[in-house]
Description:
Blueprint: H1 3-24, H2 27-32, E1 34-41, H3 43-46, E2 48-50, H4 52-63, E3 68-81, E4 84-96, E5 105-119, E6 122-137, H5 140-143
Parallel strand pairs: 1-6
Antiparallel strand pairs: 1-2, 3-4, 4-5, 5-6
Amino acid sequence: xxxxxxxxxxxxxxxxxxxxxxxxxxxxxxxxxxxxxxxxxxxxxxxxxxxxxxxxxxxxxxxxxxxxxxxxxxxxxxxxxxxxxxxxxxxxxxxxxxxxxxxxxxxxxxxxxxxxxxxxxxxxxxxxxxxxxxxxxxxxxxxxx
Length: 145
């Protein structure tokens, strides 16, 4: 396998690990997806958070009260420049909280944009942004959790 192919697969695997760690509620694994000095922008509702531990704490606060979530990540486009990569991919994220007043589900669709760096042979996310394209269902599923 070429180095370019290995890097492409490693970046996709890192973004997939991000989604799996959210849905598995594995907060240490989530923090490990990011550099210690990362910046993650979750839009107007959840804001910008700096540092891997702060990102994991935010996601924990939002997702842990839910009964389930599922983040489907696809359509990766990646550009490499030396030991850095920029990527965008599509996401559909389903959130379920059965006891939520007004209905149990809230779904979003959007784009993840990320800048990753390779350090010690491992790709980690340095900058991350969620660009929401659409939403459907009961926002209270995540707001009231």
